[in-house]
Amino acid sequence: MNAQLRPGPDTGARLQAYDWVRIGDELDAHGCAMLEALLSPPECAKLASMYADDGRFRNRVLMARHGFGRGEYRYFDYPLPELVAGLRGAVYPRLAPIANRWNTSMGLAVRYPAAHAEFIERCHAAGQRRPTPLLLQYGTGDYNCLHQDLYGEHVFPLQLAILLSEPGRDFSGGEFVLTEQRPRMQSRADVVPLRQGDAVLFAVHQRPVQGTRGSYRVNMRHGVSRVRNGHRHTLGIIFHDAT
């Protein structure tokens, strides 16, 4: 396993504190699930402070320039910060069985290996070699349009976002929003009430929903509503790499 993919010494232990059966049930029912207080306030502050360190990132994206919204984000370069790499490597094995179950239900042939390093090797062999974990930064009036983080042929169907700022103190507004589009139905929105250090797991692209005639696919998108005032930072952990 590459050094940048090795979980930190306490990452697995902190994940054991969560009820992963409940998390799986919530992902099945709603396409998202919260992990409250995944990071401590000092960890959040340390990660947010990295945004100004050019040497940690491979590029910077101004959302308005590409029609993505307003605000900006930066993709980390390898090697990833230890905490980011630890979370990426330790959360993935808990999600791979859910991802495989979803694909089975949706009639998709793709299956995901148990270890994240093996999945990253698959991505790299297909030319998806650029790391995708990122920091996002929003100011007053900024927002993120509804979107999907796909990046290439190999897409892991779940991802993780962690709020690094404290609502009501650092910013107001800026809610995390999910929408789902079911066949022949209007879109449904879900607002996830995150506090500093809380994480949300959510579907990247599609998820299965059980209907009267079996499972069908629901299309998912996510974004961030307008920040009313202040500054908001988020850590995004995407489990596949990019072309």
TrEMBL record:
Keywords for this protein: Iron, Metal-binding, Oxidoreductase
Keyword Transit peptide belongs to the record: no
Q: Which domain of life is it from?
A: Bacteria
Every Fe2OG dioxygenase domain range: 129-242
Q: Which InterPro entries match?
A: DUF2086, Oxoglu/Fe-dep_dioxygenase_dom
The record ties this protein, via Pfam families, to:
Oxygenase-NA
Q: Which GO terms describe its molecular function?
A: metal ion binding; oxidoreductase activity
Family designation: Belongs to the iron/ascorbate-dependent oxidoreductase family.
**Name the UniProt record assigns to this protein:** Fe2OG dioxygenase domain-containing protein
What organism does this protein naturally occur in?
A: Rhodanobacter denitrificans
